[in-house]
Amino acid sequence: MNWLDICALEEINVLGSRIVAGPKGDIAIFRTSNDEVFALDDRCPHKGGPLSQGLIFGKRVACPLHNWQIELDSGEAVAPDVGCAHRHHARVENGRVQLALNSAEKCA
């Protein structure tokens, strides 16, 4: 996998996000309270709301439009809602956030 250097981890607020332009639309990179990073397409599977503007809690983000909860590690909507935001591989290496742009994974 080829990794793209995005920014220093500190440049993304705790429980915040950063948007990166991807080849098929914006990708939101999320930072949890434990300094884990996750990347999803910046579109809620419900009505396309900007997940990057949602509230992050634990390993979930709540869409700002209709409060759908999306699992950051899988992109899956939390029941009873059904849907998926494509997930991208993200990691932190030496304090830097990195993203593999060619790594979009569809939900099961």
From TrEMBL:
Limits of the Rieske domain: 4-99
Entries under SUPFAM superfamilies matching the protein: ISP domain
Gene Ontology terms for molecular function: 2 iron, 2 sulfur cluster binding; metal ion binding; nitrite reductase [NAD(P)H] activity
Any Gene Ontology biological process: nitrate assimilation
PANTHER family: 3-PHENYLPROPIONATE_CINNAMIC ACID DIOXYGENASE FERREDOXIN SUBUNIT, FERREDOXIN-RELATED
Family: Belongs to the bacterial ring-hydroxylating dioxygenase ferredoxin component family.
Protein name: Nitrite reductase small subunit NirD
Encoding gene (name): nirD
